[in-house]
Write a structure and sequence with these properties.
The complex is a heterodimer. In chain A, 53% of the residues lie in helices and 7% in strands. Chain A is an alpha/beta fold. Chain A has 3 domains: 7-105, Orthogonal Bundle (Fumarate Reductase Iron-sulfur Protein, Chain B, domain 2); 129-285, no CATH class; 294-409, Rossmann fold, CATH 3.40.50. In chain A, helix 5 crosses helix 8 (91-105). Chain A is globular and about 60 Å long. By secondary structure, chain B is an alpha+beta fold. Chain B has 4 domains: 5-90, Uridine Diphospho-n-acetylenolpyruvylglucosamine Reductase, domain 2; 97-214, Uridine Diphospho-n-acetylenolpyruvylglucosamine Reductase, domain 3, CATH 3.30.465.10; 218-328, Alpha-Beta Plaits; 359-367 and 383-469, no CATH class. Chain B has a 7-stranded antiparallel β-sheet, sandwiched between helices. Chain B has a 5-stranded antiparallel β-sheet with strand order 5-6-10-8-9. In chain B, strands 1-2-4-3 form a 4-stranded mixed β-sheet, with helices on one face. In chain B, a hairpin with a 5-residue loop joins strand 8 and strand 9. The longest helix of chain B has 18 residues, at 390-407. The N and C termini of chain B lie far apart (53 Å). Classes of the chains: A alpha/beta, B alpha+beta. Chain A binds chain B through residues 1-4, 23-34, 38-39, 42-45, 49-50, 53-54, 57, 62, 65, 67-68, 84-89, and chain B through 20, 22, 24-25, 27-29, 31-33, 35, 44, 46, 72-74, 90, 92-93, 95, 112, 114, 116, 135, 137-139, 260, 262-264, 324-331, 334-336, 385-386.
């Protein structure tokens, strides 16, 4: 595609990269076909091709307006378009640059800024978020239905002390997951233990930084990244094999640490190493578990698997979880439009509630069409978003596997 | 721009969300899949139902404002290129499949439904919609009808015109018409065929009844590698001459293979100069016999490697590579210009050689990915729009390629339509009397000339200007080429 970015911009790394990405787009429109928001509004501006155009206008020097921001905000960053694009357009990096530009040149109205600040302050800090959820859980019987749907019942889990093994892996604790679904990492620790792997969760690690990164707060995101790197580094030096991530939404972010901290001479090298070690839990289990570890004793319970965008598009992991579940004896029901986002997308479900609700309802209809006993997913965001309206229980797939290894141990 | 009377009227009568009129909103609509041609419309209207579409048309008719209908905006000839003094009517919200009638093997669909989703919806019934343009994941059926789209499988199953049964359209003044019927034939002129491929000049499609076919029992693809494009071209002629009609017969040359393999592991041999993909379908016995036959023909034609798809996944992979080939060119070059000429198959090798010569002369690389079986060429001219003058050189080169096609007895478009892109070459293809006749047909449907004016059929004035530059009376270019 023809571009005319100003020379001053082309002298920066971000500008050069954006120009290259823009030029790789041949405007074929394949991306619109798999874009969730384009399916809903039919507006070219709510599809990747139109958003690329909007970003191009801004980078070429047109002052952005609220309209451009609205359409960029409406992007879920699900990256289905990248999976579809034959030309290899690195859309999400262009989007990052575009959003940064718009944030710089056009201040958000006070109310939006306030809400975004509040979300960052609350959600990405588990010391604040967990007590809030606990309070909500205590008051749950008294809450109105709409709010109740957003707060899962409290899970009381027995404390487990990971047994020492020669093989060790770090486990990302995350921000909202320990409060909303502590059973996920609990199950992961047990399952990895049964595979002879000890998990380490340093107390000072926490949010991956993704939330801040996607809410125009790059400096804050880098602060979270550095904090995790510092927390993980001793264990990495001590031979930890991987950084295991059970929320597929966090994994692409940790894989980006090296890139996002490339200019930080103090920790660029460490950040790159951390990114190399980042693994989605599905990669670990698929790599480690042999047939006997997955005993196939699930008895054919019917599972609808919702592959989060961050798993299938963000990390390009497809069919891995599905194969593990089948191997374990679950029956997978077919799910139409499996490439489409459920509308959770980090804070999208709060900031773009209308579109998010339509996408969720469409997704649940597709997931429940095959009358599953249970819906399994791989990311806390999708998990909480879907559980709010699903007619069957929603779990992380690792819980389904851990249940079986638990049975086997008895 | 809200000061334009038509915009004020549209905003007054339609929901605000259905009318885009700020420059910022309009810019992304300035082109379709042919991004070299750009023009900003006055406004974009995105109706949500037929009533709104009718109202938009009536208001434009009253204000004498031209209307350009737009589907998915994937067209490659600029058919949906906006007009600076007109509105673009986007049919994207018409994206529902209304009915699948299994007993009669037809489906009623709205025009914004994608080509592929019709086959996906019909799949549980063992049926599919045969025409499959390579952009089928994204292109809309309304656009397919407007351009009379083809695809990989049109060699055996025909173009869009052979696979639809009825259309609902709105005329420019908002009158609703049903063209075609549930019956295969109808008395009177075949207006359905006339509407198909009319590029938005006669009416706006609001519903399409497509024919569905039963999925063949078996389909397998033979992949044959050749040491030269010539040899592959000769092999195509040999297969057709031997009496077999493959379901699809496609050619990709080395640069195309290279680009595709970066996107998807299609399984194409990396060292081949050209490959042919030949699909055979039908009963498993027939397919077995035909594969043997085709393998023999390819071997005799000098194939250096032969592979037969062993399962459905492999067959899909072979096609996935082919179908993503155009956009995958973005990996080789920032811009490409896709041509769409057809030629009699026996001239394949000769025309491909001529294209190569022209490519060298102009210093612009050309990739070939095309429907070899029906002689529908798609030379992709690679250029860089950021280099001044390169687009103009690419266009000139493209024009010469199309004139070469006409000179050997072919046509300037196989399936992408004329649109804005090949409007000048229409003057080469047709004489004055023929063009006047085309204009009379348009007048019959759209006397005010407001539907997509200036596309598909050139004005005589335009031809006179173009003719002065390119073709002198009675003297076709390339006299060295044999005439029919």
């Amino acid at each position: 595609m023809q571009t005319s970015l100003p020379a001053s911009l082309l002298q920066t790394r971000a500008g050069l990269e954006a120009d290259e990405i823009l030029r790789s787009c041949v405007h074929c429109g394949f991306c619109n076909a798999t874009c969730p928001t384009y399916q809903l509004t039919g507006n070219e501006l709510d599809g990747p091709r139109g958003r690329i155009y909007l970003i191009k206008q801004v980078l070429e020097g047109h002052a952005p307006t609220e309209k451009t921001r609205l359409h960029l905000d409406r992007c879920l960053t699900c990256r289905a378009c990248e999976t579809t694009c034959p030309s290899g357009v690195d859309y999400h990096h262009l989007l990052d640059t575009g959003r940064e530009r718009v944030a710089r040149d056009l201040q958000r109205p006070l109310l939006q800024r306030g809400l975004r600040f509040l979300l960052r302050q609350l959600l990405s800090r588990s010391r604040r978020f967990t007590p809030l959820v606990r309070t909500g859980q205590a008051l749950r019987p008294l809450l109105p239905a709409a709010l109740k749907a957003r707060i899962p019942a409290r899970q009381r889990l027995p404390h487990i002390e990971p047994r020492p093994h020669a093989r060790r892996m770090l486990l990302l604790d995350g921000c909202v997951q320990p409060a909303l679904a502590p059973q996920i990492n609990h199950a992961t620790i047990r399952l990895l233990d049964s595979l002879g792997i000890q998990t380490i969760v340093p107390a000072s690690s926490g949010c991956c930084g993704g939330l801040s990164h996607h809410l125009d707060a790059g400096d804050e995101a880098r602060m979270f990244m550095r904090r995790n790197i510092d927390a993980w580094w001793p264990a990495i030096e001590d031979g930890a094999e991987a950084i295991v991530i059970t929320a597929s939404g966090c994994a692409p972010m940790v894989r980006e640490y090296g890139r996002l901290l490339a200019d930080d001479s103090a920790c660029a090298g460490k950040a790159a190493r951390v990114s190399e070690l980042a693994r989605d839990i599905s990669e670990i289990v698929a790599g480690e578990a042999s047939g006997s570890d997955l005993p196939g004793t699930a008895g054919g319970a019917r599972v609808a698997f919702h592959s989060p965008c961050t798993l299938q598009h963000g990390q390009g992991i497809t069919g891995v979880v599905e194969a593990l579940l089948q191997q374990a004896g679950y029956t997978l029901v077919p799910v139409a439009d499996a490439h489409l986002c459920c509308g959770s997308a980090g804070t999208y479900s709060i900031l773009q509630a209308d579109l998010a609700t339509q996408l969720r309802d469409n997704k649940l209809a597709a997931l429940q069409a095959g009358r599953p006993d249970i819906i399994a997913t791989a990311n806390i965001g999708c998990h909480a978003h879907l559980a709010g309206a699903a007619g069957v229980p929603v779990v992380h797939w690792i819980e389904l596997l851990a249940r079986l290894t638990g049975q086997q141990a008895k | 721009m809200a000061d334009k009377p038509i915009i004020a009227v549209l905003l007054e009568r339609l929901p605000e969300r259905c009318v885009l009129h700020d420059a910022e909103d309009l810019r992304p609509y300035e082109c379709d899949g042919l991004s070299a041609y750009r023009s900003m419309p006055l406004a974009v209207v995105i109706p949500e139902n037929v009533e709104q579409a009718r109202l938009a048309l009536q208001l434009c008719a009253q204000h004498a404002v031209p209307v350009v209908a737009r589907g998915a905006g994937t067209g490659l000839s600029g058919g949906a290129l906006p007009l600076a003094d007109g509105i673009s009517l986007s049919m994207a919200r018409f994206n529902r499949i209304l009915d699948i009638d299994v007993a009669n093997r037809v489906a009623r669909v709205q025009p914004g439904v994608t080509n592929l989703s019709i086959s996906t919806a019909a799949e549980p019934h063992g049926l599919y919609y045969a025409p499959d343009p390579s952009s089928q994941i994204a292109c809309s059926i309304g656009g397919n009808v407007a351009e009379n789209a083809g695809g990989v499988h049109c060699l055996k199953y025909g173009l869009t015109t052979h696979n639809i049964q009825a259309l609902e359209i709105l005329t420019m003044d908002g009158e609703h018409m049903t063209i075609g019927s549930a019956a295969l034939d109808a008395p009177g002129f075949d207006l359905l065929a006339l509407l198909t491929g009319s590029e938005g000049l006669l009416g706006v499609i609001t519903e399409v009844t497509v024919k569905l076919l039963p999925r063949p029992e078996t389909a397998q693809v033979v992949l044959a590698a050749f040491a030269s494009v010539d040899a592959a071209g000769a092999a195509v002629t040999a297969v057709i001459a031997s009496g077999i009609i493959p379901a699809g017969l496609e050619l990709l040359d080395r640069p195309a293979i290279h680009a595709v393999e970066q996107f998807i592991d299609a399984g194409y041999p990396a060292d081949a100069t050209a490959i042919l993909l030949c699909e055979l379908d039908g009963s498993s016995v027939d397919v077995g016999v035909q594969i043997e036959h085709v393998n023999r023909v390819f071997r005799d034609a000098g194939a250096t490697e032969l592979k037969v798809s062993q399962n459905e996944a492999e067959r899909q992979r072979f096609w996935a590579g082919r179908k993503s080939a155009f956009p995958a060119m973005g990996r080789l070059s920032p811009d490409y210009y896709c041509m769409d000429g057809t030629i009699p198959r026996k001239h394949l090798a000769r025309v491909l050689n001529r294209i190569e010569t022209l490519s060298d002369e102009y210093g612009l690389p050309i990739c070939n990915v095309f429907h070899a079986g029906d002689g529908n060429l798609h030379p992709l001219i690679l250029y860089d729009a950021n280099r001044p003058g390169e687009l103009e050189r690419a266009e000139e080169l493209g024009g010469l390629i199309l004139e070469t096609c006409v000179a050997v007895g072919g046509t300037i478009t196989g399936e992408h339509g004329v649109g804005m892109e090949k409007i000048n070459q229409m003057c080469v293809q047709f004489n004055t009397a023929e063009l006047e006749q085309f204009h009379r047909v348009k007048d019959a449907f759209d006397p005010a000339g407001l539907l997509n004016p200036g596309k598909a059929i050139p004005t005589l004035h335009r031809c006179a200007e173009f003719g002065a530059m390119h073709v002198h009376e009675g003297q076709l270019p390339h006299p060295e080429l044999e005439r029919f």
